[in-house]
Each structure stands twice: as structure tokens, then as C-alpha cells.
Amino acid sequence: xxxxxxxxxxxxxxxxxxxxxxxxxxxxxxxxxxxxxxxxxxxxxxxxxxxxxxxxxxxxxxxxxxxxxxxxxxxxxxxxxxxxxxxxxxxxxxxxxxxxxxxxxxxxxxxxxxxxxxxxxxxxxxxxxxxxxxxxxxxxxxxxxxxxxxxxxxxxxxxxxxxxxxxxxxxxxxxxxxxxxxxxx
Length: 185
Hints:
- This protein is α+β, with helices and mostly antiparallel strands and about 180 residues long.
- The chain has a domain at about 1-125: Aminopeptidase (3-Layer(aba) Sandwich).
- It has helices at about 15-25, 30-35, 45-55, 105-120, 135-145, 175-180; strands spanning about 1-5, 5-10, 60-65, 70-80, 90-95, 125-130, 150-160, 165-175.
- The protein has an 8-stranded mixed β-sheet, with helices on both faces.
- A hairpin with a 4-residue loop joins strand 7 and strand 8.
């Protein structure tokens, strides 16, 4: 479990309660497509995604302390579980926050904590994050966490949505993070 000022990040659990909470927010058509996946169609689908994808190391349910229930997701992926082009000691961060909790800084608070964990606990050299063209909210989250734009992959196939998109990538290196006075690694 990881705690921030407003959030608790804990591993997802294959329980009915987590499946229902996941479905509550992941079924919103404004959430998944912005991140590259279709809205969940049923609690059963959310249960399967918990089992296959979310109940893995370094993927966390984001619980606003005010509710104590999952209201989003944030995590780190590496190598085979992330982008094929990730090098050794590089991670990709991903996140989404349910619509009722957006605009409160929760995504940047969760991402900031994941970046800290990547450098201080997991000994990563670089943390990457991507956002699709037009997802300015996600770009701003990454900028708030001191990530800088690196490159764009134009016209890439988004398999889960069955369409082509332009995806921008930002990153922060361990050295950049340390220069911010964030820690002694």
C-alpha cells in the first residue's frame, strides 16, 4: 500500500467489491477511449480485466481517502508487460481517474508517487508516459510531474479500439528527478 496526501494506492483485488468499483468508472465512455481501451460492458468484463491485467505487480487501485473505494487506476509496466521498446530499468506509467474525481489533482498525485517509487524502490533509470493526440488533461498531468515531451508515434494502431492514433510520449530520467531535489537515490 502506498499513501499520499489525498490517496491510497493499493493492489487491485479479485473481489466482487473491486470488480463493481472498476465497472462503475471504467464503463464511462469518457474514460477508456481517452486511454486507448473501450468502456467496460459488464461487471463480468471488469472481473476478467482484474484477473488478466490489473492484479499484477505495480498496478494499483487509486482510492481517494474521502471514499476509501477505488476511483481510478495507476501503475507501472516494464519490458514485456509494457512497450516493447522499453530498455532495461525503464518503466512506463499509466493512469486514469473516474470522472467524479477528475480535476482534483489525483492523477498527478498518483503519478508523482509512482515516479518516486520507480526511482527510489525499483531502481529505474527512466519513467515514460504516453497520451493520445487531443488528451490535453493527460499531457498536463505528465507536465505537472516534470516529465518532458520526447517524441510522437504517428498513425499507430490502437488495437483495443480498432483505430489509428497519434501517441505522444513524455519521460523523466532519474537524473532529472534528482535535480528537482526529489530524493537522494
